[in-house]
Amino acid sequence: MMKSILLSLTLLSFGALLAQRSLPQFSNMRIFPSGVTQTEPVVAVDPANPLVMFVSAVTINTRNGFRSEGVYVTSDGGANWSGSDSCSGEFIGNHGGDPGVAIHPGGAFILVHVGSVFTGVYSHYSTDRGSHWSAAAMLTSEQPEDKGTSAIDDDPVSPYYGRMYSAWVNYIQPYPVLISYSSDSGKSWTSPAAINGTPPLASSGGYVKTGPGGQVYVCWAGLPDVAPYHEDFAGFAASTDGGVTWAVTQNVFAMKGIAGTLPAKSGIRVNGLPRLDVDRSNGPRKGWIYIVTAERDLAPAGSDPDVVLHRSSDGGASWSAGIRVNRDSLGNGRIQYFPEVHVDSAGGVNIIYYDDRNVWSDSSSEIMLSRSLDGGDTWTEHVISDHTFRPKPIPGGSVGYQGDHIALTSTGRTLRAFWMDDHSGLYQVWSAAIDLNALGLRDERGGLPGAYGLDQNYPNPFNPGTSLRYSLSAESRVTLKVYDISGREVAALVDRVQAAGPHSAVWNGGGYASGVYFCVIEAINLSEPVLTFRQVRKMLLLR
Fold it and tell me: How many Cβ atoms sit within 10 Å of the Cβ of residue 7?
């Protein structure tokens, strides 16, 4: 009997190793190696130049207890990073972490954080890519729950283009979700307004995202006031007028989150707070909303923590039943937690999370990517971390603290994942760049984009005319438009079918004021009628 058990365990371990090795491996890097603890990464991409990204994280200096937010910047698409483990915006001693970040279409970096010395939520802005920061602007002086998020409207056709939103739970009964927004690159903010009034249960989270055409969406969890305090349901709200008014559903679907600790992972504290994203492609599921949670003991989740997805195809009015994302056997004792969801420009739904199915025997974890090309009906899985680590609480944090979330975004055909682990001996932010071509997947178009591209306009700056060159890899319906800094369309240069190959257009800015303008190209391959390519270039007209 004992030999049979040992043989079974050996086969399981060997099978897991084979499964791990059969998956594509991606080189990982610490984006800012240091002697300071880094956790809870967040990321923003410059809408005018996707090579520029701004990452922040909760930072804790365990030697002296100093807490702040990291400022990590790349201008070459993630190959090289610079920055600091602390934001220099005054008041320096009041930086308490929980960062939210954005890059305004005009180029300003914006950082939102909770207070340390003084309660509340504060923001800073930088006009030189994070080298220097403004003094703090206060969003609220009341106590927030440290689970809030921020997002910016970077859709050039939105009437609220450039507006930044921050959402959080007011940590005062009845614990509603609050929202504040800035229309001037974070210099000033509206007074916080309660989105969900008096919720039936205490709210937790407050995850905000923008959709196509200016929509704003927020989700949160309802927490019972008696043990075991797991997330009991997800709430959802939508705004079509820039966050002024909201259509609210206090309970859009039942859930049983994993809030608490994981004894198998050294007692780290985890949560099942909902995270969301919106399909902003021009594909068949444009506008679909996806919410992902970590749950157990409620179908389709099993008795161990699983990743569960719900989706809405009607702007949040109705929601699908839960879809179990991770494909390992149900109830097998393996642990998945801290999922993050991102919909790429082709409409692919991507979810990353910590996973131990391949390395459970020594209590380790790795980072898994689940990807769906049909709105969540089917999934493929890929290990994206090139190392494992053993989760454990972070010294200097609260009891069991490892952080509360990880981050995922994309630029073109590249996914960019950010997470925290202590493989180096200290919790640091790690990153993987995932070339979707390398996954061996075919997207909804039945192929992969080739030589689509929009060059930077020349000359730039210009007065009054400038040339725009672009290329198409297949016969496509092309639109090439110019927008001003407020998101208003000022010129339509191209709107027709064009053959594969190089093309050019000229914009004459005579009659327009000096300032920043954006050229946006969209191309639809005629053989596969969904959005194939979209790119934005920032231009400077100097009169």
Answer: 10
